[in-house]
Amino acid sequence: MINKQLEYMPEAGDTLEQYLEKAKKYDFRCVFVNTEEYDFAKEYLKDTDVLLVGDIDFPEGVLTLSDKMAQIKKFADKGFKEIDYVINQENIENKNFKAVHEEMQTVRDFCAKHGMAEKPIVEMCKLDNDEAAKREICKITNEIRPTFLKTSTGRSFGGAKISDVKLMKEELDDGILIKAAGGIHHYKEARAFLDAGADVLGSSSAVKIIEEEKN
Description:
Strand order of the largest sheet: 5-4-3-2-1-8-7-6
Strand content: 15-25%
Oligomer: single chain
Largest sheet: 8 strands, parallel
Low-confidence stretches: none
């Protein structure tokens, strides 16, 4: 079963309790909640090992670094031990790698001090015409060593691609995990991304994926 490699995104129309109940039933790796939902979710999932994860600047990626750090601090103060955050998209689109490096390093330093895992998100689709830029992002990641590198938010004009996961697997050092997200709706797709080198997958279709896996 690949349930522990699935990070469950909310499905349209579900209440928080319905969302958490599905996560409990299928024993997914994690769910995403905000700081106001944290206490309820922690109590609801207290007898499970489902992680509570926050997301910051999602999916826009427009915050300044100082504003982003202020938000990350709020999540850390609440008790979160893992965070997904979108790297500033203007810097990605303009290939301002110095600024990307600074952002990733600042977040890494903070998370390391607070016992948090982090997943910087790069919209790889915005670099589709420049493989060298994608490899440069991986080079920066190797220098900073965040817990994960994530392919996409799934909310831009493109989601995860097998080719990007393969490139990341080729370029990233051992120990840096890969998350693929965006457009993964079926078990066969999920299996293909895992076989290509992804360690975890983000999907609002996680329940469907597990049910298809059973069959």
